[in-house]
Amino acid sequence: MSVPVLGPGQFDLARSLGGGQVFGWRADSHGVWSGVDGDRAYSVHQTSLGTHLDAGNAAEFRRFCQAHISLEDVRRELVMRCPSILSAVESAQGVRLLRPSCASQVLLSFACTSNNQLPRIDQMVETLRSIGPTVGAGGGGPIQGFPSLEHVAGLGEDWLRERGFGYRASSLPKACRQVVERGGEEWLQSLKDCPYEQARLQLCQLAGIGPKLADCIALYGLWHGEAVPVDTHLWQAAVPIFASHWAGTPFGPMKGAALAKEMRSVFGELAGWAQLFLFSARLFDHGSRRRVQPKR
Questions:
Q1: Is residue 169 part of a domain?
Q2: Domains of the chain: total
Q3: Of the candidates 202, 160, 199, which has an alpha carbon nearest to the alpha carbon of residue 178?
Q4: Which among 195, 222, 249 is the end of a domain?
Q5: Which long-range contacts (CB under 8 A, 24 or more apart) does 233-241 make?
Q6: Which of 35, 92, 105, 112 could form a disulfide with 25 if both were Cys (CB 3.0 to 4.6 A apart)?
Q7: What pLDDT is stored for residue 287 in this prediction?
Q8: Are 259 and 238 in contact (CB under 8 A)?
Q9: Where are the beta strands (DSSP E) in the chain?
Q10: Quick one: 79 and 149 in the same domain?
């Protein structure tokens, strides 16, 4: 029996679960979304009455999608701090900033996204999950979660290259070994309690993790709300608002860092929400349901 978890208009499944915050979530032909968060498997669908959980722990899922946060309050605060963001905020109705419980799962997922497109990201994520533990069961059989950092740290480079990981076949196991040497999942979780800049610096010391991926992991895996991952989608959406003098110029790392700093100065701890709305509005073509290709 399904359990109601959020009211009508409070959670857009496609934009939140399929919009680049988490990976490995899928919708079936009936509109039921299924995925994993840590060691829990979930299935969820929507009706005119709201969002309903079909499988999984309801309390944990509410924490995962931050059901306690009022989207109306967030939108109101963002627009108060910057009226020019109104269009993106209105376009991203129902988009929620997710809070995955497992930081290592976030790290593994985003390590697959650099210079990559969604189909190949999905393929890599599914490859990793194929060697992960069983965390539930669905209509199609067992549902597998992500492998441990220790497991990925021991994978051979040739094995990963044969499965399409490219240069990540070297950097991914190395990054996992570095995390394991520092204390594994416990060390990653400890970065939640560090100041944002310090946590980001620690992440940037891992193999294959540059500033943008560090911000993705800091925002979604470590819950640092001031983190602003800047990619081409956010650049195109945010420059006209926050850095109009760069309009029409190419995106680059130094400019991205300056844009992120400006957004933090405007939105503070809500900067992550602001970038999510801007990113989502751009990704889903400003309110239409036509999704453009994300490239985190």
A1: yes
A2: 2
A3: 202
A4: 222
A5: 233/279, 233/282, 233/283, 233/292, 233/294, 233/295, 234/259, 234/275, 234/278, 234/279, 234/282, 235/259, 236/282, 237/88, 237/278, 237/279, 237/281, 237/282, 238/263, 238/275, 238/278, 241/82, 241/84, 241/85
A6: 35
A7: 41
A8: yes
A9: 3-6, 26-27, 33-37, 40-47, 50-55, 134-138, 141-144
A10: no
Q: Please give the Cα distance from 167 to 152 (Å, whole number).
A: 15
* CATH code for position 233: 1.10.1670.10
Q: Could you tell me the residue range of the domain that residue 139 belongs to?
A: 102-222
Residue 132 per-residue DSSP state? S
Please pick, among 212, 255, 261, 295, the residue that the annotation labels catalytic. 212
Assign 278 a pLDDT band (cuts: 50, 70, 90).
very high
Is 192 among the residues known to form the active site? no
Domain boundary among 222, 255, 273: 222
Whole-angstrom CA distances from 177 to 51, 132, 154, 155, 173 are 39, 17, 8, 10, 6
204 and 266 within one domain: no
- Residues 239, 153 share a domain: no
In a domain, 43, yes or no: no
Per-residue pLDDT of 51-70, as tens digits, reads 999 999 999 999 999 999 99
pTM assigned to the model: 0.93
Mean pLDDT, range 243-264, rounded to an integer: 93
Domain check: are 141 and 166 in the same one? yes
